[in-house]
Specification:
This protein has 163 residues and is an alpha+beta fold. Helix content is 25%, strand content 23%. The protein binds zinc ion (ZN). Pfam families: FBP_C.
């Protein structure tokens, strides 16, 4: 994706107030991020580990989501596969919950998805980062097909949040 500036990112949030978007933690090293290899930029708030954010470009404009990472309830089975990039992780993936955009979000509605803990889906899909696990099954998809699947899954998630 094309490199984004802090200002573009802050004004791209779909599911939080303008005030929150102004205050939330945006990485300081935006210029050093591997934008060419990213379908979306995702990050955790270093001061608040239960907060995560992601920004992507859809329909020609940046769109960003604020996410919460609630501690898993004891009865929840730990999932190991990211729902966005379908990468397997030994330490599990993190449930991230996005408040819905607009009124639905104000009424407490949210949408959850299981995501790579470090939100580095783009790098796993491209083989730029690995989980230390042998693939559980051999996938015959090309990197381009995996990238398309990842961006499709992400777009579907954004659609659910804004629906
Ligand atoms: Zn992932």
């Amino acid at each position: 994706m094309r490199p984004l500036t802090e200002r573009e990112i802050r004004s791209a949030f779909l599911n939080c107030t303008k005030g929150e978007a102004k205050r939330l933690a945006v990485p300081r090293d935006l210029a050093d991020r591997p934008w060419d290899d990213l379908d979306f930029l995702g990050w955790r708030d270093p001061q608040a580990p239960d907060r995560a954010y992601l920004v992507t470009e859809l329909a020609g404009r940046p769109q960003a989501l604020a996410l919460r990472c609630p501690a898993p309830a004891p009865w929840q089975t730990r999932r190991s596969m990211c729902s966005i990039c379908l990468t397997d992780h030994t330490n599990g993936v993190t449930l991230m919950v996005a408040p819905k955009a607009g009124k639905a979000g104000q009424q407490g509605n949210s949408v959850g998805t299981y995501l790579c803990d470090d939100l580095s889906c783009s790098l796993y899909v491209r083989g730029k980062k690995d989980t230390g696990l042998f693939a559980r099954y051999h996938e015959s998809l090309t990197t381009e097909e995996k990238i398309r699947r990842t961006t499709d899954n992400l777009a579907a998630f954004l659609t659910k949040v804004t629906a």
